[in-house]
Design a protein that fits this description.
The complex is a heterotrimer of chains A (496), B (423) and C (607). Chain B is mostly helical. Helix content of chain B is 74%, strand content 1%. In chain B, helix 4 runs antiparallel to helix 11 and helix 14 runs antiparallel to helix 16. In chain C, helix 13 packs parallel to helix 19 and helix 19 runs parallel beside helix 22. Classes of the chains: A mainly alpha (496), B mainly alpha (423), C mainly alpha (607). The interface between A and C is large, with 51 and 54 residues.
């Protein structure tokens, strides 16, 4: 069944290519239908907990194995991808007005590439799909984006590519080092893990820096984040949903799958600076979100804030922190997809993203206000949402680890960093409430462009929200279900 | 019999070459005849080369001046095969057809001679045969004024490099008394100087920095078929020649030639990619792209701990992929290049023809080295070998230099869809 | 035990029904649904406890299970939580009934009741929680409900801001609460109340950890229960409907902090470094609240600051280890404060929205029953003998007096002064509102429905009854909290004497001031000790300005982006320069070749 699913995701772009461009609705519905089918397939595969592995050796001597595997790390990310894509496709039916077939083609290509990136166990193929996934996004932002879209899309491409190129150098370096040491030339991840012991630490540090740099640009971690506000603001709403919900997670996934496993010694050595960078980045992102006047920028910067906390969770060697971080990937994916969808809805009706042009949406669009407010709760980490659960676990782990450090080795900086991290809760509340206040409450502003009869959500739009909210609340109330499956994965990271 | 059989591919070409003047003499007007002859010749040569490879024919002719071996036949196969796709490209020439194909076949013959050469003399003969037909080919490009300028520049540079080449050979012969292609390590100043001249003259032909400025000017005046030939066939031949002479690794341990090659190659990649950013002309765009790509492939020459066959395979693969990429780029552009040479013409190309713009995009992405297109894979093979020889820093710099190239390729590709190729 | 979950979830059902379909229902149906579910919970609870031995812990599912920490979603019913549940459900139901008439005619009637039910659900969750996490869920949830209810009439920007202020200040406290949870989780490997309490009493618990966690949890309590300096939200919360103020900001939500500390009282008893801090902050809050209340002119704000002050009393009690007196005061305060708020609501309703006490007057004749209720509530607040308020306040004072630390005498004196001030402001308010005066409006009053008067009267009666029928003693045994102070002999007489005399004096002055219409408003009191100023100008504005000017403009644009633009400019510059090599002159090309050749020659030979 795994092979069938993979094949289907490969054929989806081809099928769409063959459909005539005039019948745009057909293209859209075929796209969505197949994506829903893929969702069902992935879901069945994962609940059956059979081993989903696909391996195809292109060249033994060159170490090129096309090796795909669903493991504990990418399991839920695949499900997230499979869930978010139909919603993105549905959103694009309304939001994209020109060249619809091309857009759906780009979505299908993104689907394929993203799934392959998550599944790849072979460093080279991981890199190949990672790099290639830039291309559909390049087109999505560049063709259907806002006014400043060219700058945004080139920034996106060039930033991501810079990190990737250095990562490629590091990959090659690791592979060659492995070959020199063990005589086996392979790009597979498992054999390369042995390099932890054999490669000298100084070499490991350089390779770590290259990998970390690539992922930190993608996640993004300030100060490498400046592409994100542009990309998010200019991208069309479905593109932003995709970017925020999934592409950012690719960076975090890469970090956990490759960096944490390949360079534990370096991470151990540089743990405090890493934590500090992530926390400062999170604070910076949240602080900037507080003073933006473009609602898309607010959400974009809040993404930076959330991802910073997520990364803090990843580098803390505590079971709860890493579980929280992986849970947070899901949570943030769902929340930001919903948030960007809402912004898209608002833009479609009112053609503005200026914070002060809204007001009193609770009266004119009650359904939307309710759903939007519930999403904001998750963004603010209010229980019982998934946002709360994941941040709770991350902070629990971080504080516990810091206290342990204080007790065992008198390192007070850890607790300072973790304590500062908790300030993001306050900043999150500040910018979320500000957003809610200007959008939902208050009188209609003078500059308001609200015309009478702004349409509230129809059934389809409500159901997009409902699906996302369902997961947010259910997983927030009962996260054990997912945490359970992370346990095994985290054991592999050998943390105390 | 053996000689004739071993030289069969070349002889087929000679036969065809002799045929063409007959067409002139007999004043046959048919357009199809030269084309058919050309096709027959090339396909025939391909077939024979394949058979030679199959039979693993290994012969040394003319007292060592000419070598035939399976590897070399394979290389010649590639070069001949690379000539065929030009028929797919739209022609813009003003020369008579038979003359056109005559010159092409002569060019091919020259490259075959160069590949099979066993001594510097035959190498020189091949070089001349490779270079001189290009002059009239370039001269008869689409726009008379530009083509003339390009052709003159080409011939001047070509003469210069041939002169340097001969000088190099002369010094080598004088110092070592031998004409065979093996370079040995020697402390003789003249010998070393000769080697340097040899290397650099071939580099001039490849348009490696700092010998590159002629290349964009020459490309600009070309017909796009000739552009293709210049980029692929000619340069492939030269690289293989470089491989033959200089990839013999044990000989250069006390010369800083590796440093020189690395510096010049990296400079080529850098300059090539940097110059791409500001281009407005499509042909110059491809010229700089070619400069950068030659930078990549010459890097492979410094790799020491790999067998010679492997390097040959890499060069082989590289040019195969490069030719595919160039074709993917040039085929869609055929119509366009007929009217003018501006990159801005590509704006909104997608609206006008979506299939063509897709192919062009694939070609550009492949040139840029984006996975999963072929250009990516071969690039990392080269980088991988560099790292294997402990040239990690070089590889990193090469990567960064190639990164600079991403912007112009994406700009051109994106421009087809977005509608703006100004930066 | 599943009935416990039913009791918990009934209000949630009410929330969902009214929330999703309420706008389509008639007002009567919404009211019915909104009131029915809390009443159902109340009846079920009463029935179950009366009939069977209903106490114990019931676990619904495991929320998360790590290697050394397991958190269940569990509820616990014991005497303490039962008492609180009765307060919540009892007063809550009465206020629901009151609201049916108070909010009559409002556009968002259904929304109001759904929010109110939501609040009840979260409050019950908080109260019935078996571990700190479930309590935290309830804790945040009531904050959320409070935000929604304070900003209920959201068309006014000010209301939305007040709601936000409440939530933000709460959240600041919540950060502390979370830190406390984490420290406890780290040290004790559990966040279960029973287990923490047990472990804290053992010898090998680290004093630092206990003190730290107690401190941070207390910070959380400060945020929720409006103690210094996190009290600034409570007065502004009065922009919400009055029943909301009664329920949330007097009887239930604000008492959550005290409840939490009482729940963890074994832990706090070990936290010897934190208890003095709690006592001091409580006392200061009490004093400050009372001082500011004396100059308020809005009746609801008087009551709000009064609540702040009374909560300070409870914390002062907690700080000296007098857990039972704190709970007792919580209990009595819930009743009489709710009475005061509800009758104030009736007054506001009757006067068509007038809230300035200086514009009221002479209501004694027009609203006699209301006056009685307000009078009873005021008497309790002032601590007049025979009222329940008297018993609880005296208990606190006696305990602070008898506390063995050096500072406790000072605290007692300050609390006595506060008592006097309390008597002063509440009697002043009473006199201004009910005694005949020139300022009273002559407009005909809006009729008060029976549904509104009934709860008021009920609460008033209850506030007296508690005092009269030896209920405190029964409660003390019932709750069985740890005792650490023995009351000094002389305190039994000294304290009541002092407080009574001070109160009488204060009431007399209040009467004089009212009659003579003196109005002195010191600036510092008017500015509420500049706390609001601190919050708004210093904190928020500075933060916003910092973020905007420093971070957004300087950092983001000038530093980070400038770095990137400069890299881009470098590339473009190099690109330009490099392209210049190809200048079209063939002579230059050949020259270049020869120059490069020579250079390379040099390199080749001499390097």
């Amino acid at each position: 069944m795994f092979k069938f699913t993979l094949g289907l995701s490969l054929f989806l772009p081809l099928i769409l290519l063959l459909l005539p461009s005039q019948k745009e609705r057909v293209v859209a519905w075929v796209n969505m239908g197949i994506q829903l089918l893929l969702l069902a397939l992935f879901f069945t595969m994962l609940t059956n907990s059979e081993l989903c592995e696909f391996s195809f050796t292109l060249s033994e001597s060159l170490g090129l194995h096309y090796h795909l595997l669903i493991d504990e790390f990418n399991k839920y990310l695949i499900l997230l991808t499979a869930l978010i894509f139909p919603l993105v496709t549905y959103a694009s039916i309304d939001f994209i007005k020109t060249e619809k077939k091309l857009f759906h083609l780009m979505l299908a290509l993104s689907y394929l590439l993203i799934v392959q990136t998550f599944l790849a166990q072979n460093l080279l193929f991981f890199y190949a799909f990672w790099e290639c996934s830039i291309v559909p996004m390049f087109f999505i932002i560049g063709i259907w984006g806002g006014g400043n879209r060219l700058l945004a899309t080139y920034k996106f491409v060039l930033f991501t590519a810079l990190g990737s190129i250095l990562m490629l150098a590091a990959i090659l370096f690791l592979v060659v080092a492995n070959y020199k040491i063990s005589g086996v030339f392979t790009f597979e991840l498992q054999p390369l893990l042995r390099l932890q012991e054999t490669l000298p630490l100084s070499a490991q540090r350089w390779a770590f820096l290259a990998f970390a740099f690539a992922f930190m640009i993608k996640i993004p971690v300030p100060p490498f984040h400046t592409w994100l506000p542009y990309a998010h603001v200019e991208a069309p709403a479905p593109g932003s949903m995709l970017l925020a919900a999934i592409l950012l997670k690719m960076g975090a996934y890469g970090f956990i799958k490759f960096v944490l496993f390949l360079f534990p010694a370096v991470v151990e050595e540089w743990r405090l600076p890493l934590m500090a960078i992530f926390v400062l980045g999170a604070l910076y992102g949240s602080a900037l979100a507080f003073v933006q006047n473009d609602i898309k920028k607010i959400v974009a910067y809040s993404s930076i804030g959330h991802m910073g906390i997520l990364m803090l969770g990843l580098v803390t060697p505590s079971e709860s922190a890493i579980s929280g971080a992986m849970l947070s990937m899901l949570g943030h994916g769902l929340t930001s997809a919903a948030l960007f969808y809402s912004i898209g809805l608002l833009y479609e009706r009112l053609h503005t993203r200026d914070l002060f042009h809204f007001g009193e949406l609770a009266t004119t669009m009650p359904r939307f206000s309710l759903l939007f407010f519930l999403i904001t709760l998750s963004a603010m980490a209010v229980p019982p949402t998934l946002g709360f659960a994941s941040e709770f676990f991350i902070f629990l782990g971080a504080i516990s680890y810091s206290l342990k450090m204080v007790i065992t080795s008198n390192h007070y900086l850890f607790i300072a960093v973790s304590g500062a991290a908790m300030l993001t809760i306050l900043l999150g509340t500040l910018y979320s409430l500000r957003l809610v206040k200007y959008l939902l409450w208050g009188k209609k502003s003078e500059a308001s462009l609200l015309r009478a009869g702004v349409r509230d959500l129809n059934l389809g739009e409500c159901s997009v929200f409902t699906v996302l909210l369902l997961f947010i609340f259910v997983l927030g109330i009962y996260p054990q279900f997912i945490i359970e499956s992370f346990k095994l994965a985290i054991k592999g990271l050998s943390i105390s | 019999m053996n000689i004739f059989y071993a030289l069969l591919p070349e002889n087929i070409l000679v036969l065809a070459l002799l045929l063409f003047p007959m067409i002139e003499v007999l004043k046959l007007k048919s357009k199809a005849l030269p084309l058919t002859a050309f096709l027959l010749a090339t396909v025939g040569a391909l077939a024979v080369l394949a058979i030679h490879y199959q039979q693993a024919l290994e012969v040394t002719l003319f007292y060592g001046h000419y070598q035939v071996s399976p590897n070399l036949q394979a290389i010649k196969f590639l070069l001949t095969f690379s000539l065929l796709p030009i028929l797919l490209l739209r022609e813009q020439i003003f020369i008579g057809h038979y003359k056109y194909y005559f010159l092409l076949l002569a060019l091919l013959y020259g490259s075959m001679v160069m590949i099979s050469s066993g001594s510097f003399i035959t190498l020189f003969v091949g070089l001349a045969l490779l270079s001189i037909p290009l002059f009239p080919l370039i001269l008869n490009g689409p726009i008379q004024k530009e083509s003339s300028e390009s052709a003159i520049k080409y011939i001047i540079i070509d003469s210069t490099l041939t002169a340097l080449f001969l000088l190099g050979i002369a010094f080598i012969y004088f110092a070592s008394g031998k004409m065979d292609l093996t370079i040995i390590s020697s402390d003789n100043v003249l010998y070393r100087f000769g080697c340097l001249l040899l290397l650099l003259s071939l580099f001039i032909k490849l348009a490696i920095v700092p010998f590159h400025p002629w290349s964009p000017d020459v490309y600009e005046g070309c017909d796009n078929r000739i552009l293709y030939i210049l980029s692929v066939t000619v340069k492939a031949t030269i690289v293989f020649v470089l491989w033959k002479i200089f990839a013999n690794t044990a000989n250069f341990l006390n010369y800083p030639w590796q440093a020189i090659i690395i510096t010049l190659s990296i400079a080529s990649i850098l300059v090539g990619n940097l110059s791409l950013i500001k281009q407005t002309s499509i042909k110059r765009f491809f010229a700089y792209s070619s400069i950068a790509h030659m930078g990549y492939i010459t890097l492979i020459l410094v790799v020491t701990n790999v067998s010679i066959e492997t390097i040959a395979i890499i060069i082989f693969a590289y040019f195969a992929i490069y030719s595919i990429s160039m074709l993917l780029c040039l085929l869609p552009l055929g119509n366009l290049l007929a009217s003018a040479d501006q990159l801005s013409l590509l704006e909104q190309f997608h609206q006008r023809s979506s299939t063509r713009s897709s192919f062009l995009s694939f070609g550009l992405l492949s040139l840029a080295g984006i996975p999963p297109f072929p250009g990516f894979w071969i690039k990392i093979v080269i980088m991988g070998y560099l790292i294997k020889c402990d040239y990690t820093l070089v590889a990193v710099i090469a990567f960064l230099a190639s990164y600079i190239g991403i912007y112009p390729y994406f700009k051109v590709m994106g421009g087809q869809f977005f509608g703006a190729i100004k930066h | 035990m599943s009935e416990l979950f039913l009791i918990l979830f009934f209000p949630l059902v009410g929330f969902l029904i009214n929330g999703l379909w309420g706008s389509r229902l008639q007002e009567k149906s919404c009211a019915l649904i909104g009131c029915a579910f809390p009443l159902l919970s109340l009846f079920l609870l009463t029935y179950k406890t009366a009939v069977s031995d209903f106490y114990g812990v019931s676990i619904l599912f495991t929320w998360v299970s790590f290697e050394n920490l397991t958190i269940d979603f569990a509820l616990k019913l014991d005497h303490l939580s039962l008492l609180m549940s009765f307060i919540v459900l009892g007063i809550g139901s009465l206020i629901h009934i009151y609201s049916t008439k108070y909010m009559h005619g409002d556009q968002s009637f259904a929304r109001y009741f759904s929010y109110l039910n939501l609040f009840l659900f979260f409050m019950l969750l908080l109260v019935l929680a078996n571990n700190l996490l479930v309590m935290f869920i309830g804790w945040e949830g009531v904050g959320l409900a409070s935000y929604l209810l304070i900003g209920f009439w959201y068309k006014e920007n000010e209301n939305a801001s007040s709601g936000a202020k409440a939530f933000i200040v709460n959240r600041i406290g919540d950060i502390g609460f979370l830190l406390g949870i984490f420290i406890l989780a780290f040290h004790f490997q559990t966040i279960n109340f029973d287990e923490i309490n047990r472990a804290a009493s053992t010898a090998n618990a680290s004093a630092t950890m206990i003190n730290l966690s107690a401190l941070f949890l207390f910070i959380g309590a400060c945020g929720k229960s409006a103690q210094l300096p996190l009290h600034v939200w409570l007065p502004d919360a009065m922009t919400g409907p009055t029943p909301v103020s009664a329920l949330i900001h007097a009887a239930t939500m604000v008492t959550a902090g005290i409840y939490m500390i009482v729940r963890l009282h074994p832990l706090y008893m070990q936290a010897t470094a934190v208890l003095p801090l709690i006592a001091v902050i409580g006392t200061l809050t009490a004093l400050l609240g009372a001082l500011v209340a004396t100059v308020q002119s809005d009746i609801k704000r008087v009551l709000a600051y009064s609540t702040v002050s009374q909560l300070g009393y409870m914390f002062a009690a907690l700080g000296v280890g007098a857990f039972y007196p704190a709970m007792l005061h919580l209990f009595t305060h819930a009743f009489f404060k709710a009475t005061l708020f509800l009758s104030a609501g009736a007054i506001i309703h009757a006067l068509h929205g007038e809230q300035d006490i200086y514009k009221m007057g002479g209501l004694a004749k027009k609203m006699p029953w209301n006056m009685v209720a307000f009078l009873l509530g005021s008497l309790c607040l002032a601590g007049v003998p025979l009222t329940s308020g008297f018993i609880s306040k005296e208990a606190i004072l006696m305990h602070t007096y008898s506390h063995s630390h050096s500072y406790s005498q000072t605290l007692t004196i300050l609390l006595l002064i506060t008592a006097a001030l309390t008597a002063f402001y509440i009697s002043k308010t009473f006199f201004l509102v009910f005694l005949p005066s020139k300022n009273g409006s002559e407009k005909p009053l809006h009729a008060i429905a029976f549904a509104m008067s009934l709860p008021v009267i009920a609460l008033a009666i209850l506030s007296i009854v508690v005092g009269l029928f030896h209920i405190p003693a029964f409660m003390e045994n019932y709750l069985n909290l740890a005792k650490s102070i023995t009351i000094k002999e002389e305190a039994h007489i000294l304290i009541p004497a002092l407080s009574l005399s001070l109160s009488a004096f204060a009431i007399a002055i209040a009467y004089l001031i009212t009659v003579k219409q003196i109005k002195i408003v010191p600036k510092i009191l008017e500015q509420k000790f500049y706390f609001d100023h601190l919050y708004e100008k210093v904190l928020l504005s500075t933060l916003r300005a910092f973020c905007k000017r420093v971070l957004a403009t300087i950092f983001e644009v000038k530093i980070i982006e400038a770095a990137i633009w400069s890299m881009r400019d470098l590339v473009l510059f190099s690109s330009r320069r490099v392209t210049l090599l190809t200048n079209g002159q063939i002579q230059w090309y050949v020259l270049l070749i020869l120059m490069a050749l020579s250079l390379l020659m040099v390199w080749w030979f001499y390097v």
